[in-house]
């Protein structure tokens, strides 16, 4: 009897479970690093999640656009290519604006400017930690 490869449903549920684990780890890491009180956390996390959802939405749009370009690249005209470039630049600008100033005044009103800077450092540190753990796991296989 041979093992069956996991179906897409299993893979998707594992992927979703992994996302939820990472999200929980991020929440714990940021809450600890910023020393958020319960009251601050109740105001902070909905704002933070809204920013993340907007950024993710824009990133998904960009991914769809890139796939479209890949499918039509060989047959596209210069005019079509220029249109795709304009669309990508516009999406990149929206993503950048989301990273820089989307809802950040509201977050600063909750946690202050100094802890906002600490938040940015905590996000970078968390990503580095996750990447390091991922590389370590891959090298052990």
Describe this entry's structure for a reader.
- By secondary structure, this protein is mostly helical.
- Helix content is 86%, strand content 0%.
- The chain has one domain.
- It has helices spanning 8-34, 38-72, 78-100, 104-111, 113-140.
- The longest helix is centred in the middle third of the chain and has 35 residues, at 38-72.
- The mean pLDDT is 90.
Task: Give the termini distance in whole angstroms.
Answer: 25 Å
Could you estimate the helical fraction of the residues in percent?
Answer: over 70%
Mean pLDDT: 90
The total number of structural domains is: 1
**Coarse shape:** globular
What percent of residues are in strands? under 5%
Q: Which stretches are low in confidence, meaning pLDDT under 50 for 5 or more residues running? A: none
The helix/strand order is HHHHH
- Supply the helix-strand structural class: mainly alpha
Q: Give the strand tally.
A: 0
Number of helices: 5
Coiled coil: 48-75
Protein name: Sensor of ECF-type sigma factor
Keywords: Coiled coil
SSE inventory with pairings:
Elements: H1 8-34, H2 38-72, H3 78-100, H4 104-111, H5 113-140
Helix pairs in contact: 1-5, 2-3, 2-4, 4-5
List keywords for this structure.
globular, 0% strand, 86% helix, coiled coil, mainly alpha, Sensor of ECF-type sigma factor
In short, what is this structure?
By secondary structure, this protein is mostly helical. It has one domain.
